[in-house]
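queue> holo job accepted (zinc ion)
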Amino acid sequence: MSTSAPVRAATEPPYRGRFAPSPTGPLHFGSLVTALAGFLQARTQGGQWHLRIDDIDPPREQPGAADAIRFALTRCHLHWDGEVIHQRHKQDQHRAALERLMAAGLAYRCTCSRRMVGASAYPGTCRSANRPAQGRFSVRVCVGAATVSLVDPIQGPHLWQLDREGGDFVVWRVENLPAYHLAAVVDDAEAGITEVVRGADLLDSAPRQRHLQSLLGLPIATYLHLPVAVDGAGQKLSKQALAPDIAGQAPVQTLLQALTWLGQEPPVSLQRALPREVIEWAIAHWAQSRIPRLRQRVVPPS
Ligand code: GLU
Ligand code: ZN
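queue> job finished
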């Protein structure tokens, strides 16, 4: 076990992490570093690491992507615990959480179009309007005057005032599907997730998810937001921007590049090792404190 792994008190629940890719394309370098960092956080703390496929947005999904992600993780020796969880199988739980919010008067139907709301904070137009449950509507949760603060081990302390930054946000989409924040907190709570490791592009999701956890009385996870992997032009590597599928690269090379990007210093001798041996080295030497404290970091061309 790495000497720099945080020590968990006996009273704390055992560490449980998860990697939650959306199946919108194959695994690219940016999602691999998230998987690797989360895996190492779990394995160096004697914890579990789960794989959840965030498949609640069918139009954005790509056939075969979930299989490709599983295959790429396995090839890199990033083995998850238990069954793969699929968000689309959890819609009853998502809906039950929505109904609890509605019954408590904490959420309401909204018929405003995206164009009407624009880029500024939602002004609360439908909050007291009691919109009918027919036709097209989304459901928004009240943020009130909630301020949320948290200290992220990589991104530092942050404070958000939700009413100024976006206002009441959508928890159920007009397409009659759960919105990401609601689905994420319900599924994280069900799986007993204690730490969420993901990219800093989702840092502003953390206060919204904390707010929902507090309204729903769910246990609170801690968050670790990694730098976002960007290309030389500062563009986030993404499936949409057609970042290369890491399956086209030798797994050892990918893992070593990912470890280096995460501030770890794998010895050159590992270039001739097996993926399993690279992972064993990484578990023995993982130091969260060496992750660069950056919002984004360029991925050098391989
Ligand atoms: N499914 C989200 C994504 O791929 C990540 C969700 C999360 O880690 O909270 O961007
Ligand atoms: Zn509205």
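queue> The domain at 16-298 is CATH 3.40.50.620 (Rossmann fold).
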